[in-house]
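Handout, section B. The chain below has 534 residues.
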Amino acid sequence: MYKVIISDDHMPMLNYLSANIPWQSLGLELVATCADGEEALEACARHRPDILITDIGMPIMNGLEVIQLACAANPRLKTIILSCHEDFQYAQRAVQLEVSDYVLKESLRIEQITEILKKLRGKLDAERASQREHQQLQDVVKSNGSAIRATFLRSLIEQPIWNLTEWEEKAESIGIHFEQKMPYLPVISILEHPHELEERFGGKHNMRFVLLNGLDELITIDGCVLLSFDERSSLIMFPFPKTISRNLYEEIQLLLKQIQNKMIQYLKTGISFYLGGVCLNLTELKTEAQRILDLGSFRFYAGENCLVKWQAIETTKDDIFVHYANILQSIRNCIVGKDKQLAATTIHHWIVHINHLKYPMEAVQGLVLKLVTEIELKYTVMQSFVTNFNVEQFHRIIYAIETLDHLERWLTQYLEQKITSLGAIKDVSLRKEVAEAKRYVIMNPGKKISMEEMAQRINLNSSHFSRMFKDETGENFISFVTRVKMERAQELLDQSDLTVHEIAEQLGYEHTSYFIKLFRNYSGHSPNEQRRRL
């Protein structure tokens, strides 16, 4: 519906028009009635109406002044003057203000006003349709232009430059003026969390449209060229002429920081910018674009919502899986102990270690996937209940995470949810004393734990505890302790370089030969055979 405001200092006239014009059937909504010009102008600013019906002679501000100021703020506003005057001066001023109609109050009829409003409604419909067609045409032109620039960028990166003149002509046609000796500073933009954005914006195509429109409106430096690489990344070419009067690099950084803030404020999404080196020609641009588009581990360690100059990053050759067994045990302790704060602290400790040494991104993602898989597989044994999980789903999620800080947040949240789900489960099949005993053994695989010591710890007679544990779990306590230690031994044999003697010591066995005997009884083969099976 189109919005209408009526302004007249004669209250009977206001009431007459408000009550008798068939607003709804005309497709109109009366949003305000005003008794003076100042009130009318305030209502126009507040409601931004499509039609204003106003008297001329009003206190504080007359109708002609209201029309002049309201139309200055809203040029599409349609206006109808109600007047007691047939004075030529008023009529002439109304024509100058492009008033839609001029109605004398003494001869005013509802049918007359209704007919005028119908005509204005038709004009508004036509204008709206024209505006919509114009916008659609602009969108098509912009989309075609974006597609042409995207094709140019992909071709430049992927194809050799055989004919430099031909490539320079293509660049010139999309606004890159290397032929005019204009240097450019290339900047790569990356939208954060693309999968979430796809859902919010209704697909990849819409996400690209939102990104390009947003950047196009926010980039205020003249001569910039915006080239879309894919749905969530773009190359921005900033003109970078030599000058001593301005610090262009700082100006560009300031603008990019403002864009980051506005993206978060209006689109509720983060964006990162990676600045390359200044390019003097197409060949340099090709090399630089290829270099900074290969973000890989640099983006992983630079973090989200960053604004940095791209640089090569050297990752360590150390094997991150050397630490796997210790990481797994520390995380398992957090889950069994139901300690969310310890979980967050533990994850952060290992993230700091990873960030310090700069392991390859794929190795870190692989480690996290292995940890999560191991936790899910062990969960039933550790907590006596079954949980559903899908390795492929975790693989998709973890390998879609592009930054270390995002990975830390995800893994911390995963552990918190795991601890919460554990707390929500009330397993009536296990008595509190038995559950506490199992938890203590799992969290302390390196301690010597006798049945008498455990019974004393939970304030039970050892014979009573022994019978209770066997009745509740189906195995005796010493067998359970041995099984937990042997499972830990298998993990250390598979995932560490510790010797058999060192593993035996770590699990609380003074004599390696006794440990080997227990391991063979549990697994059917020796510790060394376990390693050779890998």
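Note. The longest helix spans residues 110-158. Compare this with the example in section A.
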